[in-house]
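Incident log, support desk, overnight shift.

02:14 A customer reports that sequence design results differ from what the structure should imply. Their input is reproduced verbatim below. On-call engineer (initials T.W.) acknowledged and began investigating.
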């Protein structure tokens, strides 16, 4: 098992200009071990030599670290709380427009799931309201796939027959999102570790009622987990929600966020949270 990853990180930075030290150490080691095995190298030293000689292998390693797996309605409890509690409560505040950021959208499954809930609310007893969903990912190829919105039947496991029939067109084994569901979604490339801005440029001013950053944080080391949460927190509206994955709940709890429903992964900041961000004291919050 790999014990030291610094040499690899240094080589990738020198040859590719990419910092892979941002990733969580055990995830980085497991990924490296898989690439060493796949490349038929006999040792870490041999793999270091290969990386220096082959930009192709460097690109394969970087691609392996960028996990793009996602699902429609991935966490059943999270989406149930969103549908029955969070979204209705936002509408009760008589908001003119609900703004949502799917911050690690991969191929768009999360953004389209939220759009389905929004459309179902608009067709129900609620007053007509506007919504905008900003779907971002670091990978341009994933964002393009999201814009296209084509998925194999296996990707629809968590979608009811009623929703599948209403929001997809089917051709052979391919299901394509209907244009009307895409109308309020903007897809763009965005790096959550961007130090120049805390939200995608398409959103203009941030101020999101809901930010979903699920099943991403645990791939990064603690320093960068904290930086991502710090960055996106600056874009949450007063009383807004930050949603994370089941395995990442402790990260948010340790950063003084309040989970609104047990095990849901749906959080709100404490009342003094925005002040801590504005005064730059967020980085001093406990992460133990």
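02:41 Re-run completed on a clean worker. Output:
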């Amino acid at each position: 098992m790999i014990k030291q990853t610094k040499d690899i990180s240094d080589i990738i930075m020198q040859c590719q200009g990419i910092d892979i030290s941002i990733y969580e150490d055990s995830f980085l080691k497991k990924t490296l071990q898989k690439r060493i095995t796949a490349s038929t190298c006999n040792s870490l030293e041999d793999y270091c030599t290969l990386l220096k000689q082959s930009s192709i292998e460097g690109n394969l390693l970087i691609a392996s670290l960028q996990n793009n797996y996602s699902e429609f309605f991935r966490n059943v409890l999270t989406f149930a709380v969103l549908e029955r509690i969070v979204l209705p409560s936002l509408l009760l505040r008589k908001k003119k427009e609900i703004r949502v950021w799917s911050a690690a959208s991969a191929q768009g499954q999360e953004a389209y799931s939220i759009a389905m809930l929004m459309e179902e609310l608009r067709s129900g007893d609620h007053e007509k309201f506007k919504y905008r969903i900003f779907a971002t990912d670091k990978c341009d190829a994933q964002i393009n796939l999201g814009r296209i919105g084509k998925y194999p039947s296996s990707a629809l496991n968590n979608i009811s027959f009623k929703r599948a029939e209403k929001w997809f067109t089917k051709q052979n084994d391919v299901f394509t999102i209907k244009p009307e569901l895409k109308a309020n979604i903007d897809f763009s490339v965005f790096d959550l570790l961007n130090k120049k801005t805390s939200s995608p440029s398409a959103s203009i001013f941030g101020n999101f009622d809901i930010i979903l950053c699920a099943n991403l944080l645990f791939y990064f080391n603690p320093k960068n987990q904290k930086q991502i949460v710090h960055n996106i927190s600056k874009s949450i509206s007063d009383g807004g929600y930050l949603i994370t994955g089941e395995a990442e709940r402790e990260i948010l709890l340790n950063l003084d966020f309040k989970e609104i429903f047990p095990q849901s992964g749906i959080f709100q900041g404490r009342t003094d949270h925005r002040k801590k961000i504005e005064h730059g004291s967020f980085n001093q919050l406990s992460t133990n």
